[in-house]
């Protein structure tokens, strides 16, 4: 029997259930995958709370790595015993499990240099960092980026990738400990968003100019500060709502903030095209394999500790990446 974490109603971490389920033989185009490690991502809390609605009951989690146990009819590019990883959106829900069936075309083969633990800690976060750094804006060396939650899983990867691109990084954090972690990964300037005026500090750091781009995964609490930190015709990239949904706003505010641009991208739209996905995967895996980008796994949980893991995540007690070890 396979252990799977599910939820039958939306709500707090306590709605998560642990169930025993049968995993049958893979059908056409599928494989049966034994998980070795499962990624814990803030997006998981959005599904659990109903911010991202899905039919209930539902599995949870959309990132994991493991070993192929069986392949179904028509699967020719993967073999039993190969190590793979995956991430997605609703098409990969159910990662919080010891074993599962999954479409073979969603899987990414792992190179020898990347362990299953590292893969589970970096596939979603790393590909998110990849499209943010490489696809969403034509960064030029010397430009300045404001990065909220700089000590988080995506944040630490973005810090390192940004330095490879020759960018200046201003990172926001909540504590001295998180500031040290962000600096160690390439963050040039720290702003403590819990006790400093973010936009004022950004203007001071940039001699009044503001930044070209803001990556904002916090949402409600930082939205206006992010807009106020942009230079004329700068870009605000809203990539999460850890503090809550951004309230409705009049688009005319963008004109008042220097003809600012705003976008709310999703990873799924940047890996939907197989060629674009392969390009991002190759670049990410290349950086990690060569040691140019380090993946920090700072929290490990057992699957049965999913409730506590979600509590820790939402209380902002975590840094870097978190995984479940099967």
Automatic annotation (TrEMBL):
Domain Enoyl reductase (ER): 11-324
GO MF entries: mRNA 3'-UTR AU-rich region binding; NADPH binding; quinone reductase (NADPH) activity; zinc ion binding
Domain of life per record: Bacteria
SUPFAM superfamilies for this protein: GroES-like (SSF50129), NAD(P)-binding Rossmann-fold domains (SSF51735)
A GO cellular component annotation in the UniProt record: cytosol
Pfam families found in the cross-reference section: ADH_N, ADH_zinc_N
Keyword annotations: NADP, Oxidoreductase
Protein name, as recorded: Quinone oxidoreductase
Organism field: Verticiella sediminum
